[in-house]
Design the sequence.
DNA sequence: GAGCGCATGTAAGCTGTTACATGATTCT
DNA sequence: AGAATCATGTAACAGCTTACATGCGCTC
């Protein structure tokens, strides 16, 4: 379901586009929020057209098909936005690793958490490099703020854990 | 792969157990970090036994099979812990919803974010109700701290967004 | 005409969800 | 005797990844 929503969202926020264009967009704008490969996108667009959520506006060179969202598609997207109820993501490899940290010796654990810290710092830097919305109210603005808040929290957590581990090794 | 790791981790931290026991454990101890249904666990245990990571210690009443981790299993788990490199989770329904918030009218968006806020508050309360490790260095302790830090960050984010939306509606 | 980027597709395989199915034991 | 719980499995399906496959159009 969410892939459809992401595609409908992109077609709304960025206008009509081909599967190829949409694939590229998943690599940039919406990237920190949702991702998909072309092998998943092309078949999904075919199904969405069959369901009347999008239409082919034109067929260009090299079999390029430009899709646009339909009334039905807009309604579906809006309903999803209004109905949405969050659920906690049930699986996180990083959290699993963290859960099992006491399996390692203290110095090994410090090394492992330092690696995590690096990762969080890199992610934070990436998000900080995205230019903020200039004014008003833009797509992705709030998601970016959420990503920043979470990255900062993770970074602080890693620093705290490293301190705890160092204290316990003395 | 990670399901295996979670199972090996549980067999290490909580000792030998049946598929049924492990299923229940995914419903409590490790629950905020990883989850699995019995329909996924039973076949996985069979494959893990075939791969020599676990063995059947005894077969009890009602076909109950008690599994224990093997040397090979412990080595695999330890190697995973040492090799682990985090990756950013590429998909979050909540972040996608957040990304598309500007599709809604301001008052609708406020309502939607208020629902998110509720969700984060509930999650935080759940994690806070887990008793902290009494002393020293326990399995799950750092993962719990991570969950708390992230939940608090999400809650603050929601409050900030609600403020921004209210300011923009005036 | 060789190579690159554009553009779309298919297939195999893994992970995870939901539902179906069965039988044993314990408790009331 | 009936219900609840213990205990294990299978099947169908959805979502996603990786790899394979093909052909057009532009530029050097």
Sequence:
């Amino acid at each position: 379901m969410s892939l459809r929503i992401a595609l409908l969202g992109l077609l709304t926020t960025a206008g009509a586009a081909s599967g190829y264009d949409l694939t590229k967009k998943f690599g940039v704008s919406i990237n920190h929020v949702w991702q998909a490969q072309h092998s998943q996108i092309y078949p999904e667009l075919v199904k969405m057209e069959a369901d009347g959520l999008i239409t082919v506006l034109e067929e260009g060179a090299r079999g390029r098909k430009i899709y646009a969202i339909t009334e039905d598609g807009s309604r579906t997207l809006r309903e999803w936005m209004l109905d949405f109820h969050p659920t906690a993501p049930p699986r996180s490899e990083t959290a699993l690793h963290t859960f099992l940290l006491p399996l390692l010796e203290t110095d090994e654990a410090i090394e492992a958490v330092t690696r995590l810290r690096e990762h969080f710092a890199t992610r934070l830097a990436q998000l900080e490099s995205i230019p903020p919305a200039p004014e008003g109210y833009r797509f992705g603005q709030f998601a970016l703020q959420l990503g920043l808040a979470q990255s900062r929290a993770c970074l602080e957590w890693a620093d705290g854990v490293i301190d705890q581990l160092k204290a316990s090794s003395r």
Notes: Residues 1-3, 36-37, 39-40, 61-63 of chain A lie near DNA strand D (CB under 10 Å from a C1').
